[in-house]
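## retry 2 of 3
previous attempt timed out at serialization; input unchanged, resubmitting
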Amino acid sequence: MPRNLTAFWSLILAALAAALVACSPEPAPPAASPAPIYDLILRGGTIYDGNGGPGFVGDVAIAGDTIAALGDIAGATARREIDVAGLAVAPGFINMLSWATESLIYDGRSQSDIRQGVTLEVFGEGFSMGPLNDEMKAGLKGRQSDIQYDIEWTTLGEYLEYLVGRGVSTNVASFLGAATPRMYVIGYEDRAPTPEEMERMQDIVRQAMEEGAIGVASSLMYPPGLFADTEELVALSKAAAEYDGLYASHMRDEGAHMLEAIDELITISREAGIRAEIYHLKSSGKDNWHLFDDALEMIEAARAEGLPITADVYTYPAGSTGLNVTIPPWVQEGGFEKSIERMSDPETRKRIIEEMNTPSDDWENMFLIAGSPENILLVNFRNEELKHLTGRTLAEVAEMRGTPVEDTIMDLIIADGSRVGTVYFTQSDDVVRTAVSKPWVSFNSDAGSLAPEGAFLKSNPHPRAYGSFARVLGKYVREEQVITLEDAVRKLAALPADVLNIKRRGRLKPGHFADVVVFDPANVQDHATFVEPHQYATGMVHVFVNGEQVLENGEHTGATPGRVVRGPGWTGH
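## retry succeeded, writing output
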């Protein structure tokens, strides 16, 4: 018995504590976090993220409308998984110049573009669907042809919301057409705006930018847009630049004076302090093809100077516009009805015919640029009695009618009550190939988004409506190897997203919206031709827009998850 009682009890307590420790189980390791559960995982595809680097095999996980993870996520699970091994997985493509403004009202599925991987349509070349005053609404209603609709909006923002409210499969965005404020304030007069009118036009630009417009886009070949001088375009662009907008332009001339037209665009960019995009860069007319190299030098010199000049192209050696571009611009001052009056007057018609056959520095004369009426294909009539002429050349129709080509042009425009949709074979495959190769060039369709059914079959579109993007991947990547697949994806998605200054789109990246396409690089192909244009491209397997599947195993699901994509000036939420 220890003499010190305190020490004794201390020894007893220590022994008991040691015994308790010896009998206690080992502490459990901390519980592992459960593997995340996503809505969808695309397993084992070759990922091209849009940044231009080589593809890599991995997985893409989607949660809701967002890309949640990318790469090696073998331990993750999802409510649904799709095996995409052997296929390319890429961000959704952006159509830099779309004319699906009316086709999406008729059919929101956007079939011909979705089946090529397009997930964003960008509108607004020259004219936009808002803002509209009563006179402009009446004119828009009067020009409707196979697609009829009520005009249930006034502002540009309201139009975009109207589309989404009806349901569209693609996302939608728009420029403010530069002719739109001119029409709103001045009408179809060929004159400069007064200072007060210019202020009103700039305010229209500001309102559109605050509603989410991407910028201002001109089309300087067509009235009333061609009535604007450089000073007016600089003023409109300055208003857009206040919101970090973009100036895009169908330039004043794509033929003999294309270098002067590029100089004008560069001047606008420099003086307005605005980024600038050239719509459908090309050299039109065989005698002008040699100018294309000089045009590229001008653009690259401006870029080296620090001016952010970019461009887009469609992937065909022929363009499409109205038959009325063979008519001198002064004939069209005051609007379409005034042009009908002038073409119907015998004395005025003589003057028109003389100017159609006379080279001029004042306008881009597509009658002469085409080189021959054999190179002018008639594809879209409004008048049912003329639709049988669809798909015939102007030379064929003139012979059928027994009238001179110049008179045939005017007679058709008058009889159809429209500009008459026309394809012009004026371009070079080599020029297209060179443009496709440039790192600052993206892509467009310059067409509606159609389907081989219903009202769409009443006219023949340019095949670019069905094939412009598939042609990039099939012809220029796989067959001709003009660009690599990784660079094609960059130019189809990330480049246009950067040029448009839109966020969280154009790349496969966690946190970005889940606009995702899955395609077979070995088989993606366009099929539309000028003779038989209503043919879908093939090789696109799956398409997701904002995380929702729109194309499944090459077939449309009927989903319409498209949203309005707004520019940097948007003041909403």
